[in-house]
Specification:
5 helices, 152 residues, alpha+beta, 3-stranded antiparallel sheet
């Protein structure tokens, strides 16, 4: 980790909107010349995720980002692509208008976004999400995916 920086002592040298105008990226500089970047996002209400075992925890954007990056990150050009996926998923989550959501619903939204961008990433995430135990289960999702694609 780098040295701690007091943001209050910094000045903004550049600002720009990122995403769909839902965040602002700011380049900052401290009096001693160190530069760093901050992001400001619109704060949304806290969502509660209901896990498979019935337990509840606060929705954590970073946890979702890490899960996607770990399972399928190498199929995308970089962090910007993954951020777009997360933004789209969050739009879906917050668009539901509910404060408690099942983890399964979040996983389905992830799959919906991945299928639009990369079939291989979709299948990789699906194999973990659906906890495939056999090759037949894996093959079934490929067959299903091909049928969906053909029917478009």
């Amino acid at each position: 980790m780098g040295a701690r920086v007091n943001i209050g002592d910094s000045r903004v040298i550049e600002s720009r909107e990122v995403g769909d105008g839902m965040a602002v990226r700011r380049r900052r500089e401290t009096p001693d010349g160190h530069r760093f970047t901050t992001y400001e996002r619109i704060e949304k209400p806290n969502l509660i995720v209901i896990k498979k075992d019935g337990s509840r925890e606060l929705y954590d954007r970073q946890k979702l980002t890490n899960a996607i990056r770990q399972s399928v990150g190498k199929f995308f050009a970089g962090d910007a692509d993954i951020e777009k996926i997360i933004d789209a998923i969050e739009d879906g989550l917050f668009g539901k208008g509910e404060l408690e959501l099942a983890s399964k619903m979040i996983g389905e939204l992830v799959l919906d976004e991945l299928v639009k961008r990369s079939e291989v990433a979709y299948v990789r995430f699906a194999s973990v999400f659906h906890e495939f135990k056999t090759l037949d289960e894996f093959e079934a999702i490929l067959v299903s995916r091909r049928k969906e694609k053909k029917n478009r």
